[in-house]
TrEMBL record, chain A:
Involved in formation and maintenance of cell shape. Keywords: Cell shape. Belongs to the MreC family. This is Cell shape-determining protein MreC. Pfam families: MreC. The keyword Lipid metabolism does not apply. It comes from Seonamhaeicola sediminis. GO terms for cellular component: plasma membrane. InterPro entries: Cell/Rod_1, Cell/Rod_MreC_2, MreC, MreC_beta-barrel_core.
TrEMBL record, chain B:
The keyword Nucleus does not apply. This is Rod shape-determining protein MreD. The chain crosses the membrane at residues 12-32, 75-93, 113-133, 145-163. The lineage of its organism: Bacteria, Pseudomonadati, Bacteroidota, Flavobacteriia, Flavobacteriales. Belongs to the MreD family. Its main location: membrane. It is found in: Cell membrane. InterPro entries: Cell_shape_determining_MreD.
């Protein structure tokens, strides 16, 4: 017994090192698996608060470009509104408008990252704004990612620029062929679309949109255009490089999408 | 003694904040960021307890991980260099370290550069191996390690020169 205690005391630095290194590796491995419970994330009051106060200052630097984006969005919506056939002055109820299946929340990105291989964003809405896991996040131009962890005031978002976690169902706008969206960790302007079958007609410049196959994003949210493509190793599918519409390095105002039917769809699929 | 502890605590908090607020947003050439919080581990007083250094390095790395949502990669790399620091000290400063007379304020630039280079390179290699987490992308890991290391080493040496109390 004495010898064991002596051994521990003599090697206490080494043992402490091994223990802490092991804990760190466990955290790392957890961060590489999708939606595994993470103890260490930035959606807490310390890091959220710090990023929030920094963002209060730094948002002024991008004010001009963000205003430009918002006014373009306003313009587009105004065009839609005045050219639509919905008669807003009628006195009958349009039942289509009553049963909305998607709810939108506006939020602000307070921490953006695109230089790592697994990028995670932080937004300033959390559980108290009824944000939950697996809500989609988009901007006016395209998709951003999926909500992961929420605290009461902040949430982390798994960016589409994430090599391990992200797999969003996306497809061609022209046809109904769809595959999944991945990122190879290199260029923040390009993502990869895999598993598009070889018999689909693919051209450079085709628009890629969300497929609506998952219960997270509605169908038809723009993602990007095809920059180049080649056959993958099995010769059955295409490997497509997609140039994003979104500038992932300059994100400020985002919209969070809640699918009201998600629970029903997931229950049905899991039965 | 108390003022030394307070100094270390202030340095800890200041380096974490400077790292997450400024140096993680540089994104030079798209993806290169310097990790200057290593200066805390590099210039932790030699005479102080090694166990405390290992423990504080772990929490330093973990705070960076919390801000960057990177799991435990900074914690792992920081603990590793904190543990092997005596070896690096011995190989860069030689007999001066063995006689326990070393003080970081009064050392020459040459050994200092060697010491920081070794420390930063080992740290970045572990950091990016864990971040990318795939043997097949070894070229990408080495590339990222090399370029980020150069960036970190340059900045660390500049900062250490600016903030060193020159008592020569």
């Amino acid at each position: 017994m004495q010898q064991i205690i002596n051994f521990i005391i003599r090697n206490k630095n080494f043992l402490l090192f091994l223990l802490l290194f092991f804990i760190a590796i466990v955290f790392t491995i957890q961060s590489h698996s999708y939606h595994k419970s993470k103890f260490i994330n930035s959606a807490n009051f310390i890091s959220g608060g710090v990023y929030n106060s920094v963002n209060n200052i730094s948002e002024y630097f991008t004010l001009k470009s963000q205003n430009q984006l918002l006014s373009e969005e306003n313009n587009r919506l105004r065009e839609l509104l005045f050219n639509s056939n919905i008669n807003t002055n009628s006195n009958y109820l349009d039942s289509v408008l009553l049963e909305k299946s998607y709810t939108f929340f506006a939020a602000k990105v307070i921490k953006n990252s695109y230089s790592a291989t697994d990028n995670i964003l932080l937004i300033n809405k959390g559980k108290s704004d009824s944000i939950k896991q697996d809500f989609g996040v988009i901007t006016t131009q395209g998709i951003v990612g999926i909500v992961d962890k929420s605290s009461s005031r902040f949430s982390t978002v798994i960016s589409i620029l994430n090599t391990t976690n992200s797999s969003i169902s996306a497809g061609l706008k022209r046809t109904a062929h769809y595959g999944s969206l991945r990122w190879n960790g290199k260029n923040p302007e390009l993502v990869q679309l895999i598993d598009i079958p070889i018999n689909a007609k693919v051209n450079i410049g085709d628009t890629i949109v969300t497929s609506g196959q998952s219960s997270i994003f509605p169908k038809g949210i723009p993602i990007g255009v095809i920059q180049d493509f080649k056959n993958d190793v099995t010769e059955n599918f295409y490997d497509i490089n997609v140039k994003l519409f979104n500038d992932m390095t300059n994100l400020e105002h985002v919209y969070i999408i809640e699918n009201k039917n998600k629970e029903e769809i997931d229950n049905l699929l899991n039965e | 003694m108390n003022s030394a502890i307070t100094g270390n605590i202030i340095r800890f908090i200041a380096l974490v904040l400077v790292q997450v607020i400024i140096f993680n947003h540089i994104n030079f050439y798209g993806y290169l960021n310097p990790y200057i919080y290593l200066l805390f581990i590099a210039f932790f007083p030699v005479k102080d307890n090694r166990t405390i250094l290992i423990l504080t390095s772990f929490f330093l790395g973990l705070s960076i991980d919390m801000f960057l949502d990177s799991g435990g990669i900074h914690a792992a790399a920081s603990v590793f260099i904190a543990y092997i620091r005596p070896v690096l000290l011995k190989s860069s400063f030689g007999s001066m370290y063995e006689h326990q007379t070393i003080r970081f304020s009064g050392i020459d630039l040459g050994p200092k550069i060697v010491y920081i280079t070794l420390l930063v390179f080992v740290h970045h290699l572990i950091l990016f191996s864990l971040e990318i987490f795939s043997i097949s992308k070894i070229i990408f890991i080495l590339q990222k390690t090399l370029f980020s290391s150069i960036f970190t080493i340059l900045l660390s040496i500049i900062i250490s020169i600016i903030f060193s109390k020159n008592t020569k």
